[in-house]
Design a protein that fits this description.
The protein is an alpha/beta fold. It has eleven helices and 14 strands. It folds into two domains: 3-217, P-loop containing nucleotide triphosphate hydrolases (Rossmann fold, 3-Layer(aba) Sandwich); 218-288, no CATH class. Strand 12 and strand 13 form a beta hairpin. Helix 3 (89-99) crosses helix 4 (104-117). The longest helix is centred in the middle third of the chain and has 14 residues, at 104-117. Bound molecules: adenosine-5'-diphosphate (ADP) and magnesium ion. Adenosine-5'-diphosphate binds at residues 12, 15, 17, 34, 36-42.
Length: 289
């Protein structure tokens, strides 16, 4: 099972949203992590065949993204997904199943199975307009799974979920990744740091880091420091180093920052996290320096 992306590029007027991305995906969970505007949705839409690339190609086991066979292997939850508020969960799944060409018997079986999988069996006869954000997203995943896809692509599926729903969601994704290619995009580090076997960190249309959590954190290993300093020293350090966390108390300022070597006497090295790496690249603080 191989999803192959080869020098994929999308240019909008004068903006290159996806810039010559090449990668091969196989079974497992991939976390596409990047700030708003990084190019995640543009990349995903090209991988789902709904946006034409400027150049480059997407194939699954050698089948082009525009071919029927590719579409049959694909399940997709778009970033802006249109639910039908007056439909019940089960009506919605039957409707989506008919669009995907499942016969009645198959639609019935599959819908029941998927409602169970996403824990919506109890509310299957309730209208979607009564659902919480998390329930809608789980229904969105269920519809993406109707055709038992080998490739499952979810664009910002955790938007609008509360913390409890997030945990539930992560468990579901982990299970799904056991037998298919799952790609999920997010700008929230905790959504993927523990479930993605591979993290793709995206910025300005390119993958700036890719690999397992351990591999990509290694970039800033031994470069994350914490210190408690007086406001003047803090000021100076903030203008010199990328600061990823600031907390002020009465007389001191607590800083967590990234730099090559110990930035001041009081500083001590701490374990780097994915959040550190993310903020290092995406936070306002480090951009302003
Ligand atoms: N239809 C479009 N026309 C022009 N620019 C676009 C269009 N869609 C997206 N962009 C631009 O491309 C960049 C990437 O956008 P997008 O793929 O939506 O990123 P993300 O999903 O990571 O937030 C942004 O700068 C965005 O403004
Ligand atoms: Mg997006």
């Amino acid at each position: 099972m191989e999803l192959n992306i080869d020098r994929l590029t999308k240019q909008y007027e004068n903006k290159i949203a996806v810039d010559r991305i090449s990668i091969t995906l196989s079974k497992g969970v991939y976390g596409l992590l990047g700030a708003n505007g990084a190019g995640k949705t543009t990349l995903i839409r090209m991988m789902c065949g709904v946006l034409k690339p400027t150049s480059g190609e997407v194939t699954f086991n050698g089948i082009d993204v525009q071919q029927e066979e590719y579409r049959e292997a694909l399940g997709y939850l778009p970033q802006e997904f249109g639910y039908y508020p007056e439909f019940t969960a089960i009506e919605f799944l039957y409707y989506m199943a008919s669009l995907k060409g499942l016969n009645k018997k198959r639609a019935k079986e599959k819908s029941a199975e998927l409602l169970e999988l996403v824990s919506l069996t109890d509310v299957r006869k309730k209208k979607i307009k009564t659902f919480s954000g998390g329930m809608k997203q789980r229904l969105g995943i269920a519809q993406a799974l109707l055709n038992n896809p080998k490739i499952l692509i979810l664009d910002e599926p955790t938007a609008g979920l509360d913390p409890k729903e997030r945990v539930r969601f992560r468990n579901l994704i982990s299970r799904l990744g056991a037998e298919r290619i799952v790609l999920l995009s997010t700008h929230i580090v905790s959504d993927i740091e523990n479930i993605a076997g591979t993290i793709l960190m995206m910025k300005d249309g390119q993958f700036i880091h890719r690999g397992s959590l351990e591999e990509i954190i290694r970039v800033i290993d031994h470069k994350v420091f914490e210190c408690n300093v007086d406001p003047q020293t803090a000021e100076k350090m903030m203008s010199t180093y990328p600061v990823i966390n600031i907390r002020e108390n009465e007389s001191n300022v607590f800083l967590r920052l990234v730099c090559d070597k110990k930035p001041c006497e009081q500083a001590h090295s701490v374990q780097a996290t994915l959040e550190d790496l993310y903020l290092y690249y995406f936070s306002e603080v480090s951009d302003n320096e």
